[in-house]
Amino acid sequence: MAGQGLALPEPKNRLLLWSVLVVVSLISGAYFVGNAFFANEYKQCLPLAIDLTIHKLGLSDKRLARWGLIHTISNSESNACKRQCLPFGTEALPEGIIARTSNLEMRPLWDSGKDHQKILSNVLEENLEISSKRILKRPLNLLAMAVGLKQKEIVSKIVEKFLSSEFVVMLFHYDGFVDGWKSLAWSKHAIHVSAINQTKWWFAKRFLHPDIIAEYNYIFLWDEDLLVDNFDPKRYLSIVKEEGLEISQPALDPTKSEVHHPLTVHKAGSKVHRRYYKLRGSGRCDDNSIAPPCIGWVEMMAPVFSKKSWQCVWHLIQNDLIHAWGLDRQLGYCAQGDRMKNVGVVDSEYIVHLGLPTLGGPNGNEASTIRLPWR
Ligand SMILES: *[C@@H]1O[C@H](CO)[C@@H](O)[C@H](O)[C@H]1NC(C)=O
User: Fold this and answer.
1) Is residue 320 domain-shared with residue 207, that is, in the same domain?
2) What is the mean pLDDT of residues 323-331?
3) Residue 365, ligand 1, Cβ within 6 A
4) Which ligand 1 atom minimizes the distance to the CA of 196?
5) Could you tell me which of 272, 275, 254, 280 has the C-alpha nearest to residue 351?
6) From the CA of 81, how far away is ligand 1's center (Å)?
7) Which residues cross the membrane (predicted)?
8) Residue 344 · residue 248 · CB < 8 Å
9) Are residue 276 and residue 159 in the same domain, yes or no?
10) What's the confidence (pLDDT) of residue 150?
């Protein structure tokens, strides 16, 4: 038995062994080449990413040098990085000064930067991770609405709920009456933008560029004729995160809402639904349906977008879009994967859609003072 272990294989077997070896080395060769290629690609962009983070944290060069970070960065720099990763038009600027994105945060007129300095020294003294969280402790979600003064009462209720949930609130005034909102206590905490007779989509395209709102995790782009008595923004957010919904909307209370599509109707006792069934008549929706209006769809009156889906949707919004009819059916492109999973309607937090003739609908701008039918 002992002598058999090292015996050479028969010539036929030897050939087989060689071909196996050749195949294995080819595969591993391809693997290493591929790896080197990707690592290289990644490296070229990495210094800038680090740089941006450092810039964001406002860390000084001295401290960084002490940590040995600067050294690492300049070593791994390459011209390819400069060419490929810097925003177009910034070639003349020193690296590290470029602020690529922004936010909607308002700043005090005489910001001495004292708090900022205090936070920074904490960063250096304490654990970096914990402190950077503290720096980022500011509202990380955005509510944007196109509003007219005639809906003041309803809008105010919505805004109060979102502001108390630490949202940034941006109001687009299509009627130009910005001053009419001043009497409300929250008014100075909202950002007001005014342009006559423009729709929510016009404003969103012009003022919600993904680079400007890069810090907000979720973007609520809502109409003004919604009641939020059964809606809590924080609970809603925790549900969409948990369910992985990239594009969502709260369900509509069918007893009080103007409902256009049965998919959006509130289902009592449910948390979230993604499809609806219509097993008779025309336009059937069953388990085999894979497209709107049966599944993977939200309407345009109260959509909620994740940061990633908004980056896509912003590009989808055409510059001549007015009411965006039909846009809803295209949102699946921006679902970050399977729209049947990533697009859905939240039932446990739901709203009422009043369907008021506000801006430019069939009865556009004829809205007189609002009468809520059930009051
Ligand atoms: C805005 O729209 C209304 C209704 O269509 C119209 O009467 C008004 O003249 C428009 N205003 C401007 C500045 O275009």
Assistant:
1) yes
2) 84
3) yes
4) 13
5) 254
6) 50
7) 15-38
8) yes
9) yes
10) 95
- Count other Cβ atoms within 10 Å, centred on residue 323: 14
Element (H, E) at 341: helix 339-342
74 with 152, same domain: the answer is no
Torsional class of 166: left (φ above 0), alpha (ψ -120 to 50), beta (otherwise): left
Strand 304-306 relative to strand 218-222: parallel, antiparallel, unpaired? antiparallel
Q: Does ligand 1 come within 6 angstroms of the Cβ of 366?
A: no
**Contact of 157 with 227, CB cutoff 8 Å:** yes
Rounded to 5 degrees, what are φ and ψ at 352?
-110, 130
Q: What is the rounded CA–CA span in Å between residue 222 and residue 65?
A: 47
Between the CA of 350 and the centroid of ligand 1 the distance, in Å, is 33
- What does the DSSP 8-state code read for residue 174? S
- Residue 365 in any domain: the answer is no
Q: Is 363 in the pocket of ligand 1 (CB under 6 A)?
A: no
Look up the domain containing 301 and give its range: 140-353
- Angle, helices 69-76/11-57, rounded to nearest 10 degrees: 120
Under a CB-based contact definition with an 8 Å cutoff, are residues 238 and 322 in contact?
A: no
pLDDT of residue 115: 53
Is 160 in the same domain as 305?
A: yes
Count of domains forming the chain:
2
Task: Tell me, in angstroms, the distance from the centre of ligand 1 to residue 339's CA.
Answer: 38
Instruction: Report pLDDT digits (tens) over 15-61.
Output: 777 776 776 677 666 665 555 544 444 434 444 444 444 444 444 44
- Domain membership of residue 113 (yes or no) is no
Alpha carbon nearest to ligand 1 atom 10, residue: 197
Same-domain pairing of 187 and 254:
yes
CA distance 26 to 296: 44
Whether residue 208 is found in the same domain as residue 328: yes
Average pLDDT rounded to a whole number, residues 327-333 = 90
Residues 145 and 75 in one domain: no
Residue 279 is assigned to a structural domain of this protein: yes
Question: Which residue is listed with tokens 């639904």?
Answer: 273
The answer to the question of residue 41 being in a domain is yes
Count helices and strands in the chain by DSSP H and E runs: 12, 9
